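Need a sequence for this fold. Nothing fancy.
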């Protein structure tokens, strides 16, 4: 496509039309449920859960790219314990890169413009500069020429993505400028902000600003956008839902790529129906993931699963009696001083301290320093017991 013909109107419509009831209802439902989920969990526990969710998000984001990185290998990568086999090590480095970038997003405190070209390039740069060298060597699908991916740099040539032919490299800055203008959250109500997250996810992929890494950047961008408007609380992941419905994800993306079918299909160049369908799918995925995590984090049910696991460990003589008492207190209170262990267990101070120290050693309780208050931990060995179906059905330690 000639750059002279590439008006930014080619990407319209940028948003579903006002009054699209099904999308407005979904957005409202997502807002209510996200806030409700946040209220279920003690803020202190959210901190450790966020680490778990980041690993989960990374696992499923990798899976969408066709890269299967076992959760066990992700945990090892975070501890800088890498496989000897080069391919497995490369996937571990990719996983670690994703988690590190999401952690940067989650702990970002200074004001940022998440829809700006600068921020999108920052996401790409922070992710790609952490990748192994072999992941930065690409072959142009159109020319067959090898490309060295430059972290944070917009593409300088044409590409083809399936049947979709993205805009020329020269036009990318203009389209990203329109992207920033159209999706600035400050101009929208909360409901329209949520709809903008769904629409912008597709439109960013449609622009395809980088030679590679666009899918990863789009998911990190959506995570950032959710956080920016107050719905990204670290307790749920859209990537899990997208990966578990990856065929539908790709089908709806392709549908939103299509040009307008007829006079009843909006007034822009692209299909309004296709965009609406993608937004509906995306918001349903978000809502379902919030519902799923809320079901896992209900205190009574979570306590029951923790108790069953601890009882098994006690029978195997791997943990001492009264271990559950200390874990229950951590879940209900968020954290407590170590000196309370005697009161919680009913043991003398020395015996209570022994029980607490064994739980800390097992990672079931964690703290910032050896003397500071303890809170609930989520080591790899308990993830599937505490949170069933968080990952696909495989042995996390196989």
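Here you go.
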């Amino acid at each position: 496509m000639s750059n002279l013909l590439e008006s930014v109107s080619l990407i319209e419509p940028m948003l579903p039309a006002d009054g699209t009831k099904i999308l407005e209802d979904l957005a409202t439902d997502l807002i209510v449920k996200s806030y409700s989920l946040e209220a279920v969990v003690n803020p202190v526990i959210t901190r450790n859960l966020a680490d778990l969710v980041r690993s989960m998000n990374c696992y499923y984001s990798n899976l969408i790219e066709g890269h299967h990185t076992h959760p066990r290998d992700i945990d090892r990568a975070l501890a800088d314990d890498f496989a000897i086999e080069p391919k497995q090590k490369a996937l571990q480095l990719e996983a670690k890169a994703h988690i590190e970038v999401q952690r940067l997003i989650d702990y970002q405190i200074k004001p940022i413009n998440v829809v700006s070209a600068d921020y999108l390039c920052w996401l790409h740069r922070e992710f790609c500069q952490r990748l192994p060298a072999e992941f930065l060597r690409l072959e142009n699908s159109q020319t067959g020429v090898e490309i060295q991916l430059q972290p944070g740099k917009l593409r300088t040539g044409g590409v083809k993505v399936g049947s979709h032919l993205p805009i020329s490299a020269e036009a990318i800055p203009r389209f990203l400028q329109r992207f920033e203008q159209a999706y600035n959250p400050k101009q929208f109500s909360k409901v329209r902000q949520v709809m903008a997250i769904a629409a912008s996810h597709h439109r960013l992929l449609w622009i395809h600003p980088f030679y590679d890494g666009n899918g990863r950047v789009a998911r990190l961008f959506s995570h950032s956008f959710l956080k920016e408007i107050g719905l990204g609380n670290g307790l749920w992941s859209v990537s899990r839902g997208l990966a578990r419905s990856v065929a539908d994800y790709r089908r709806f993306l392709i549908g939103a790529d299509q040009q307008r079918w007829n006079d009843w299909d909006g007034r822009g160049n692209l299909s309004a129906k296709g965009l609406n369908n993608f937004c509906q799918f995306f918001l349903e995925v978000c809502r379902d993931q919030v519902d799923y995590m809320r079901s896992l984090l209900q205190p009574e049910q979570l306590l029951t699963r923790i108790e069953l696991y601890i009882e098994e460990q006690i029978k195997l003589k791997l943990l001492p009696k009264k271990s559950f008492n200390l874990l229950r207190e951590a879940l209900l209170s968020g954290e407590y001083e170590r000196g309370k262990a005697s009161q919680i267990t009913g043991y003398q101070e020395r015996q209570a301290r022994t029980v607490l120290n064994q739980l800390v050693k097992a990672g079931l309780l964690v703290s910032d320093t050896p003397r500071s208050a303890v809170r609930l931990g989520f080591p790899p060995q308990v993830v599937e017991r505490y949170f069933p179906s968080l990952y696909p059905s495989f042995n996390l330690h196989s």
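For context: The longest strand covers residues 137-139.
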